[in-house]
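Input.
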Amino acid sequence: MSARRMFPMLSTENLEHALGFYRGLLGGTETYRFPEDGPPAFVVLRLGESDIGLGAISPTDQPWGERVAYVSDPDGNLVMLTRE
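Output.
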């Protein structure tokens, strides 16, 4: 089985800085933002025929009641932690 379409999602400590790179330098077009008003916690950009998701890495309370945070394990892998 081969992948037909991929949707990479990157977590970043500085979402505005990442948006400056992917939107400003690479020409990405914003197609989704959450929340719609105020500072975003997650943004989807269209780059050519591909999409990329960019999300804030700082601990965040989600509207559905979870608190989400990310940490790196000893090998540098990103681990998502949630609390209801």
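The radius of gyration is 14 Å.
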